[in-house]
Amino acid sequence: MPITNISSKKKVRRSKTVPQGRFIRPLMADITTQGAKVFIAVYEFQIKDNMELLFREAWLEVTKSIYQNCGSFGSRLHTSETPNILIGYAQWPSREQWEKDHELTDALYAKARNGMRRCLVQTKTVYKLEVCDDYLQTVLA
């Protein structure tokens, strides 16, 4: 399928071995990842009835601790159209960084993690993704 080259506006065909940044400007490449592909983990959390606020508070503390101690870029938590289902999007500099055995032993993390677990019916990793093209912006054009 043809895509538009942003710099020239002409139609080009994408090959299977497109170098990163050829068609769209990557935001996080090279500087923050030292050449590794940015890794995304997408989680689905099924929350018990009337536990969403408690879960979200605990999730924030867990996420802060992981960001501060494990080398992630942080995470976003999203509501969904399905009641009691929240979706978490965690971004890491690489799959290798995400897969490392991170030992978090501080009391605040443990309390928050247990708080999250008490609110859950179930959780699962829905997707493990590597960024191939990136044009996500943080300001409006």
Walkthrough of the structure:
The protein has 141 residues and is of the alpha+beta class. Residues 1-32 have low confidence and may be disordered. The protein has 3 helices and 6 strands; from the N terminus they run βββαββααβ. The strands form 2 sheets. It has a 4-stranded antiparallel sheet with strand order 4-5-3-6. Strand 4 and strand 5 (85-92) form a beta hairpin. The protein is globular and about 40 Å long.
How large a portion of the residues is in β-strands, by DSSP E?
A: 25-35%
Spans where pLDDT lies below 50 across 5 or more residues: 1-32
Q: What's the total helix number?
A: 3
Query: What Rg, in angstroms, do the CA atoms define?
Result: 18 Å
